[in-house]
Amino acid sequence: MSHVHHLTILLFLLPVLVKCSLHGARVKLKYVDSTTDFSKSELIRRATHRSLQRVSKLVSLVPSNNFSVACHASTASYVMDISIGTPPVLLSAILDTGSDLIWTQCNPCTACFAQPNPIFTPANSTTFSKIPCSASLCKSLTKSTCNSECDYEYSYGDGSSTKGFIGYETFSFGADNSVKFPGIGFGCGTNNIGATDNSSGIVGMGRGALSLVSQLNVSKFSYCFNSIHNKGSSILLLGSWANMTSNTSKSTPFMPNPHGSPMSSFYYLSLEGITVGETLLPIPPSVFQLTAEGSGGLIIDSGTTVTALEERAFIMVTRAFMSRIKLPQASGASLGLSLCFTLPDSGMKSVDIPKLIFHFDGADLDMPLENYIVEDTSNRLLCLGMVSTRGISILGNMQQQNMNILYDMEKGLLSFEPAVCSKL
């Protein structure tokens, strides 16, 4: 018999009701700005700004001599409300599919930045213990030192960093902290530079041993994101509750990750081509090829809003749209987007906009219009919701919206299907 509990997992501290069983969980999420009064254009500008920040951090990972984690916390989107320790201390931490380590700031602090929750004090918890150097989790750290305790150091692309020690602790979920997971390994940051803005740490959901997914032995999870203009809830499903719901779903395999590099946490996909309208663009296969050294390739990321395409592919895509959309070009600087057109008085419905299809290995992602075209009526702009990058390509969550996206680590597959998020 399954037991039903209540969890609260938040999108930047927005309270929601969640049902959970021992085998899975159904989580309601909200978009970061869904409770604000921002205009449509301001919502777009904020989303693009966060994306550009996150992309720059992800690009900074492309092979270098220094270890870095996936992004700076301020550039990610989703925050989960959990408690750690006994008695429980509230922790609002970023849910990050692009990294593994779970960490928060801890006392006694040599250097700590302001955060929304009280800083965790391990000495006040009866369930805290330091991880010994011989523990497998300590050995899983790419950069660690071991004297009397397992110390870690993570650096970010923008120069911020966290240093501290690794410990075991009980993680609790729900308003009454009734759902408890003892012995979760996490980083206690006592020397931290920078800030995590609206959160108090990071919960890694990547593919490595240190992530929450791995430590809880969750073999699959899925999410469905509403449009940023939709005030309704988005959904995160964990464990046995994460499934495809129709026979129209499509699946593509995850690619093997580069070993021994910061990119080993990412969820890589094989993008084999892009069609605009009826034309398969002549993009050389090497553009999206993942090298053994860890450069190139495409990852799917829940924290980046607009898709970032490797520059050579982006140029081909934008030229294809420019040749097919019969409107005057306009500056998209106000939104942070490169390719924009002047929106006619009659609106987007009167414009002949070509289809956009991403061809993955074994699966075509045929995007609905709202997943790649941005309409800003206040500034009379119609824009392509993508940006250019170098070194790595990223499938952002705008291109994933109104889709049920399933990460099945056991089968090594990413599956997707159109969905109404509120009905999942």
Helix/strand layout:
Blueprint: E1 5-7, E2 18-20, E3 24-29, H1 40-59, E4 79-84, E5 89-96, E6 103-105, E7 129-130, H2 136-140, E8 144-146, E9 150-155, E10 161-173, E11 179-193, E12 201-204, H3 212-215, E13 220-224, E14 234-239, E15 250-253, E16 268-269, E17 271-276, E18 279-280, E19 298-300, E20 307-310, H4 311-324, E21 329-330, E22 340-342, E23 356-360, E24 363-367, E25 373-376, E26 381-384, E27 386-389, E28 393-395, E29 403-408, E30 413-418
Parallel strand pairs: 5-12, 6-11, 19-28, 20-27
Antiparallel strand pairs: 1-2, 2-3, 3-14, 4-5, 4-10, 6-12, 7-10, 8-9, 9-10, 10-11, 13-14, 13-29, 15-30, 16-19, 17-18, 17-23, 21-22, 22-26, 23-24, 25-26, 29-30
Structure, described:
It is built from four helices and 30 strands. It has 424 residues and is mainly beta. The strands form six sheets. The protein has an eight-stranded antiparallel beta sheet, with no helix packed on it. It has a six-stranded mixed β-barrel with strand order 4-5-12-6-11-10. A four-stranded antiparallel beta sheet has the order 18-17-23-24, with helices on one face. The two termini are 22 Å apart. The N terminus is likely disordered.
